[in-house]
Amino acid sequence: EGIKGNAKLRLRECDVGAKFSQLPLRKASVLLPLLLRDGTLCLLLTVRSMQLRRSPGEVCFPGGKSEETDKDEIDTALREAKEEVGLPPEKMNHLVTPVVGFIEDTFQASPNPDEVSDVFVVPLEYFIKPLNYVALPYKNSSGYLSWMHCFTYDDHEHKKSFKIWGLTAHFAVFLAIVIFRTKPTFEVDYDLDNLLTSAEDNFMNLYASINERKKSSL
After folding, report:
1. What is the 3-state secondary structure (H, E, C) of 45-93?
2. One Pfam family from the UniProt entry (predicted)?
3. Is the CB of residue 50 less than 8 Å from the CB of residue 117?
């Protein structure tokens, strides 16, 4: 319980709750499921089915758009996780809320083949000390050049390599920094001495740039 207990304490310190839920954006949530494997804190990830219209074959966390029956963001993330991998509950211009939860270390996924083609786990520390990492250049919504994390993870259990990038990689990196309080081996946009404040500032700057883009297209 020591590893989990320390992780939970650090997560609570960075829990913003519903602070940004009132922003006028469409809502979606993803679940970042943590578990212990051989004493190592790991993240469970999924691969989107090739049958899906949006982002087929990409690595992601269980999640999706909110529905009217969902009480809140946590409800959305848990419902989607149950639908996609059988985990029982005990993107642009979307406000995507990451919900972190611990799952049983013995959990065996039952992927819904219509939505998920693979389920695998990655040691959380890989997202601050990767063996295979590149930063991909891209233009953000304001037209400024920025960098996107891209990890390649060799999963020996499945004898496969998985590419983890985009918002999924962004959330995984931030989660690893929150829990390990360690500077990654690559550059990040956060002030590690004021992690939560700098993350909130980054988010609000992005939100402001999206609003400006909306106004200019009217």
Report:
1. EEEECCCCCCCCCCEECCEEECCCCCCCHHHHHHHHHHHHHCCCCCCCC
2. NUDIX
3. yes
Backbone region of residue 145 per phi and psi (left: phi > 0; alpha: psi in -120 to 50; beta: other values) = beta
Regarding beta strands 94-102 and 116-123, do their DSSP bridges make them parallel or antiparallel, or are they unpaired?
A: unpaired
Of 183, 182, 131, residue with least CA distance to 153: 131
The per-residue DSSP string of 185-197 comes to: SS--SS-GGGHHH
**Bridge partner list, 43:** 34, 122
* DSSP 8-state code for residue 132: S
User: 33-66 b/e with 16+ CB inside 10 Å = b?
Assistant: bbbbeeeebbbbbbbbbeeeeeeeebbbbbbbeb
Tokens standing for 106?
Answer: 């013995």
Phi, psi of 195 (to 5 degrees): -60, -50
108-121 pLDDT, tens digit each: 888 788 888 888 99
- How large is the C-alpha radius of gyration of the chain? 17
Closest of 134, 98, 103 to residue 119, by C-alpha: 103
14-57, pLDDT tens digit by residue?
Answer: 888 778 888 887 777 888 999 999 899 999 999 988 887 777 88
Find out whether 61 and 120 touch, Cβ atoms under 8 Å. Answer: no
E strand intervals along 63-176: 63-65, 94-102, 116-123, 133-139, 145-155, 160-165
The class level of CATH for 3-216 reads: alpha beta
The domain limits of the chain are 3-216
Which strands sit side by side in the sheet containing 145-155, from one edge to the other?
133-139, 145-155, 160-165
